[in-house]
Amino acid sequence: MYTLKNKLSQKKGVERCPECGSSLLVESSETGEIVCSNCGLVVSEESYDRGPEWRAFTPEEKAGKSRVGGPISILHADKGLPTVIDKVGKDAFGRKVDLPTRIQMLRLRKWQTRTQYQSPVERNLLQALAELDRIADKLHIPEDLQEEAAEIYRKALDKGLVRGRSISAIVAASVYAACRSYGRPRSLKEIASVSRVKKKDIARCYRLLLNELDLRMPIPDPRAYISKIAAKANVPEKTQTRAVQILNEAEQKNAVIGKDPVGLAAAALYIACVLTGEKKTQKDIAEAAGVTEVTVRNRYKSLKEQLGLDI
């Protein structure tokens, strides 16, 4: 679309057509060209297209786009910003490059790799994000939780909390904190099983992150664990629904305050199995929940008494 130019063309130093002297100049809103409407001469043109090569229909999509390259991601040590020399062996037009050029590109790639992460902080971050990616792959953690964990780790690194401590332990604690903050619980035992550190070390680092980074975590909801335990124990949906109802009743009577949410969920699921005739033992539920039979037994007795269940 072309529009008549006046003040803007004067700002660009174009007042009249140099060919015919006409002042009837128009500008294309798409290309930025200024054209004489009398003789058709392109008087001025933009050196590049200011519009994006992509389309976005929502603010979220627009935020995730960029003019060139992939979107910025904190899951990369460099946030995906630097230019990388490719290994394809072709130029920008898809034509194969000659042997001397390929050898030169190989040398440049080596130097880029050597110089890209020079500082200890950069190398630390590179190692940490690789470990985060490995844990996320093992536990099938979605990208939004990975980004939250990466953000927590970066804050810990900026405050010097990683110095003198295990990178793997801080990463695992960051993953645990991210899962807690999003209300998608993963137990310390689960994370420790795929990490290179012990459960107690992850717990210690998690408490450190809470205190030093002033993280605010929602109160863990035992109902969030029901479906996961039930899936491992092969408990049907109707029994899961009954377990959630039991926890709702327990919450109304303040019977869940200060209790381990996993143990409560396991006990509620066991009670639901008894009430619905599902043949599951305390051992079956305890193994699926990753807790001891004693924990299930104690929480079972407590819920049974406080809810007045005759089973």
Characteristics:
N-terminal domain of TfIIb, Cyclin A, domain 1, four-stranded antiparallel β-sheet, elongated
Helical coverage, percent range: 40-55%
Give the number of domains: 3
Report the strand count.
Answer: 4
Strand content of the residues, in percent? under 5%
Structural class: mainly alpha
Number of helices: 13
H and E order: EHEEEHHHHHHHHHHHH
CATH fold call of the largest domain: Cyclin A, domain 1
Shape: elongated
Mean pLDDT: 82
Report the end-to-end length measured between terminal Cα atoms. 79 Å
CATH homologous superfamily grouping of the largest domain = Cyclin-like
Topology:
Blueprint: E1 2-4, H1 7-11, E2 25-28, E3 34-36, E4 42-44, H2 59-63, H3 99-116, H4 120-139, H5 143-158, H6 167-181, H7 188-194, H8 199-212, H9 226-233, H10 237-252, H11 261-276, H12 282-289, H13 293-307
Antiparallel strand pairs: 1-2, 2-3, 3-4
Structure description:
It is a single chain. The protein has 13 helices and four strands. By secondary structure, the chain is mostly helical. The radius of gyration is 31 Å and the shape is elongated. Residues 1-11 have low confidence and may be disordered. It has three domains: 2-44, N-terminal domain of TfIIb, CATH 2.20.25; 120-212, Cyclin A, domain 1, CATH 1.10.472; 222-307, Cyclin A, domain 1 (Orthogonal Bundle). Strand 3 (34-36) and strand 4 (42-44) form a beta hairpin. The N and C termini lie far apart (79 Å). Helix 4 packs antiparallel against helix 5 (143-158), helix 10 packs across helix 11 and helix 12 packs across helix 13 (293-307).
